[in-house]
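Workshop exercise sheet. Pairs work together: one partner reads the sequence aloud, the other fills in the structure field after running the prediction. Swap roles for the next sheet.
Pair: D.N. / O.F.
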Amino acid sequence: MGAAFLAQAHDFEPQVVANGAESSMEHHLGLTCDPVAGYVQLPCIERCSYGAVKAWVGFLIASNEIPTNRRVDFDTTVDAMALTAKEMNSKYKETSEAASLSPSCCADC
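Structure field:
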């Protein structure tokens, strides 16, 4: 959604705003946290920084293309993400019971 914000803040047309959001979110499809040493990877500051970079790249892509030529729209991307989440095994979801993180795991976050 950061890409959508950037496009909106730069006063681009609504289609560029939606395309920016779609482009950024699309790259999260299939993103799961691999269990490492029995824990699910933490949602850390590192992931936030990668998200910021993805938002910027999504904005750059959306602002440098012909908006009507976009092959995948925002709603299709959100639907695909919802389906992925629904079908994903719960042990790979950070919010599942399998991801019982101890406070010591979060020291660097």
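Discussion prompt: Helices lie at 2-9, 14-26, 45-63, 74-87. What would you look at next?
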